Amino acid sequence: MANVHNGVGTCLAARRPIPAVAFVPDAPEFALAANGFKPAGDTVIADDVWIGSEAIIMPGVQIRHGAVIGTRALVTKDVEPYTIMGGNPAKPIRKRFDEGKIAMLLEMAWWNWSTERLSLAMPLLTSSDIEALHRFWREQ
Fold it and tell me: How many CB atoms lie within 10 A of CB 129?
């Protein structure tokens, strides 16, 4: 019978304690040790993104405009604009809109609009009519 302990300290396997080992790069004892840390780059979350509770986004991942990350998803790769992702590891479920509407939304970049413009566009922003929102944007 094996016991497993979660956390820092000891791990009990077959009732024999195994001391935890930590890498302390500033300690003189570790001067010749190889550092296993490899930077993954910046994690970038764009505008108009919704992230469900307890989702995990790994370092270096880019979540592009309008994406939706499902609850408890484990995101290990970049997410394309307006894509719904879910699962462990997260996989694309579907696009939120067709490619034409996605192109319109990205072109408008409504998240950069002034407060006044957003107020004027609120009836369109809260509707499903992306074409009408795009016309509004072109005419302003």
Answer: 13
